[in-house]
Design brief:
mainly beta, duf1285 like fold, 2 domains, 6-stranded mixed β-sheet, elongated
Length: 164
């Protein structure tokens, strides 16, 4: 609260040197963050704030308790940790579980890792999520050759894969 009784605004968001790299690693001012629990806390604390930031298009932040700081994201702010072909759900690095949007699958131009769109409630086009090696292997294990091209069986339903 400010002195006049009105709630005080949080400080303006701006980058402070924390970078989430395409491979899921974190650095601060160019130095790798090696503490496992801190990296996990950062992964779990990534949030997207639509309509904030200098361009008002939205920013990614990491939250830890009361701390909230803007981060730079190299490719994807979220990572798919696992894929369950029985339910069609993916588990994300922030702890969320969502249905896989098969039509949004594509490969990363960096290294051909799988990417998909998630969190359409925050951004109409969705936000990028990158598959971990394990989750990508789980998804590829559910791919079948159907003669008319590869399909993936998700929750018992066959979906044609987009050209990857």
């Amino acid at each position: 609260m400010s002195r006049g009784g009105a709630p005080s605004k949080p400080p303006e968001l701006r980058p402070f040197g924390l970078v989430l790299h395409h491979d899921g690693s974190w650095t601060h001012d160019g130095q790798p963050i090696e503490h496992r629990r801190l990296r996990e806390a950062f992964d779990h604390g990534v949030r997207y704030l639509p309509g904030e930031g200098t361009d008002r298009e939205g920013v990614f932040v990491v939250t830890l308790g009361r701390f909230r700081g803007q981060i730079e994201v190299e490719e994807a702010a979220f990572f798919v940790r696992s894929f369950d072909p029985q339910t069609g759900s993916i588990a994300l690095s922030d702890g969320a579980i969502e249905p896989l949007d098969v039509e949004s699958l594509r490969t990363s131009p960096r290294d051909a890792a799988l990417l998909c769109r998630v969190k359409r409630d925050l951004a109409a086009a969705g936000l990028l999520a990158r598959f971990s090696r394990g989750a990508q292997a789980e998804l590829l294990a559910a791919v079948e050759d159907a003669g008319e091209g590869p399909v993936v069986r998700v929750a018992g339903v066959r979906h044609h894969l987009p050209e990857l």
